[in-house]
Amino acid sequence: MMRIRLELPPFIFDIHSSVGFVEQNIHNMYPDDLFINPSRPADYFVGVEKANGLRKFIRPQASFSFDAIEPFKTLPLNHAYASLEWGINYVVANQSLQYVILHSGIVAKGDNAVLLPGPPGSGKSTMTAYLSGRQGWRLLSDEMALILPETLKVQPFVRPICLKNNSVDLVKRWYPEAKFSTVARNTHKGDVVHLCPADSSWQQRDELASVKAIVFPRYDERIDLEITELNQNQGFMQLAQNAVNLNLHGQQGFNTLVSLIENCAVFEVVYNNVEAVKTFLEQDVL
């Protein structure tokens, strides 16, 4: 049985698991200095365990738990590590009410951050992986932006980047020396692999950034680059659709989104060339 305490700013997680490759992946994906003394208090207690009963022997499965509650159905055993990462997202999205949370990738160049909101399949994780692997850019999150209410400030929540299907081979070609997790095959998202962020992202994991631009990406293999600047109404409606806990923040949450829209350039970008998007961001946005 593995039990570790992992500091993932701004949170500390107590993680337990009886699945051997989960521990191997955690040590492969996270730097050694994030493993801390178990005497330090944890914010959240999570784990992935092998399912009991007949499923232990026939089509083995695993289950994610949070505070001894299992919020999801059991999944095939080979999904266990991916399930842990998804479960951590679930816990933060539902428990961390001190932030206005957006379903979005977010990267920064220096202290200037770019939000990349989008639904599954939009290419936001692939774009996040590409940008944060380049010199001068850092990852804040590939999945959720933690915005300090009524500000433009975002708290980094650096974690492995979730890649799916064709994007896995693409990112491996870009960054052959990077660290990748084992494959979770045939998940509800397809074949899934997690990518360890670059060292620079881990080193700056405590450094807040200010959102300067909001870019809604959409991958289309037929289009090299098509950029549309959105007005404030269009930007607000799209951003609100990606808000995770807006209703819980009431007026404060509404004010936060309004502040983002009023103070940031907002674009919709359709692309098949990530380098062209990077050039656009560096030359015309930041």
Please characterize this protein's 3D structure.
With 286 residues, the chain is α+β, with helices and mostly antiparallel strands. The chain has two domains: 2-95, no CATH class; 100-159 and 197-285, Phosphoenolpyruvate Carboxykinase, domain 3 (Alpha-Beta Complex), CATH 3.90.228.20. It is 31% helix and 33% strand. It has eight helices and 16 strands. The chain has a five-stranded mixed beta sheet, covered by helices on one side. A hairpin with a 2-residue loop joins strand 12 and strand 13. The longest helix has 18 residues, at 246-263. The protein is globular. It starts with a strand and ends with a helix. The mean pLDDT is 93.
Give the topology, please.
Elements (H helix, E strand, L loop, with lengths): L1 E7 L2 E7 L2 H10 L14 E7 L10 E6 L8 E2 L3 H16 L4 E10 L2 E6 L6 H9 L5 E4 L2 E4 L5 E3 L5 E4 L1 H9 L9 E4 L2 E6 L3 H5 L5 E11 L5 E5 L2 H10 L4 H18 L1 E7 L2 H12 L1
Parallel strand pairs: 2-3, 7-14, 14-16
Antiparallel strand pairs: 1-2, 3-4, 4-5, 6-7, 6-8, 6-9, 9-10, 10-14, 11-13, 12-13, 15-16
Helix pairs in contact: 6-7
